[in-house]
Amino acid sequence: MTTLDAPTTAITPTPATAPRRNLLTSAGGIALIASPLLLAGGMATIPPGEDGTTAGYVASLAATPWLTGLSAGLLHYSWVLFALGVLAVPALVRGSRGRGVVGVVAVAMSFCAIQISGLLLGDWHAMAVGRAVPREQAGAIFEAATTDLWTTTWLWSGKLVGFAGVALVVIALAWARSVSWWLLALPVLGTASMMVLPMLLGNAGIALGMLISVGPLFVIGAKLVRQR
């Protein structure tokens, strides 16, 4: 007796999460592309007139409230976008090499960006204090608040991502062979240029130097958007 087996058709399952993963990585890429633009805008609109003292800084914020709000708002949302976008960076790693390193760096830099984004609320407080009390008293109040242990911790974690965050992300991705090492030249060049450009162009020089420093985010963001 012969048993006839019914023909079977092999069906390759399509992961249900693939469209969602593509959407999230693309959204992360867009966030990383937009973040440097907002950052440059925030740096370019820093209120003028600071004389290097705490009282002078508070006075400069209080003198132009609309400019203070614009600058702080752009800076705040630039770091919010970075904090969200950098979490998508591990999706660029194809193999096992560097996957853990990229993940740790992405989470750490996201945390630091959250810290600095919240700290920008202090600009609005400083502006309000500077308009409510005399200059020296306003400076003393602001200095007392910013030297507290909590705010000092937030500030230093924010400085970490501000000065080294993009470079660390590039190093981790380059180690994982997901981007080229030459991208590291941009943070180095941007940091060096900020020693010269501000003297020549003022706030525009700061914005330009910062834009060069975070330039790798445009490349990383574009790679995430194209990720399939």
Folded structure, characterized:
By secondary structure, the protein is mostly helical. It has one domain (20-226). It is built from eleven helices and no strands. It has helices spanning 18-44, 54-63, 65-85, 99-119, 121-132, 135-146, 149-175, 185-193, 197-201, 203-213, 216-226. Helix 1 runs antiparallel to helix 10, helix 5 (121-132) runs antiparallel to helix 6 and helix 8 (185-193) runs antiparallel to helix 10 (203-213).
Which structural traits does this protein have?
228 residues, mainly alpha, disordered N terminus
Low-confidence runs of at least 5 consecutive residues: 1-13
How many domains, as an integer? 1
N-to-C series of helices and strands: HHHHHHHHHHH
Structural class: mainly alpha
What composes the largest sheet?
none
Rg measurement, Å: 23 Å
What portion of the residues fall into strands of 2 or more residues? under 5%
In short:
The protein is mostly helical.
Topology record:
Layout: H1 18-44, H2 54-63, H3 65-85, H4 99-119, H5 121-132, H6 135-146, H7 149-175, H8 185-193, H9 197-201, H10 203-213, H11 216-226
Helix pairs in contact: 1-3, 1-10, 1-11, 2-5, 2-6, 3-4, 3-5, 4-7, 5-6, 8-10
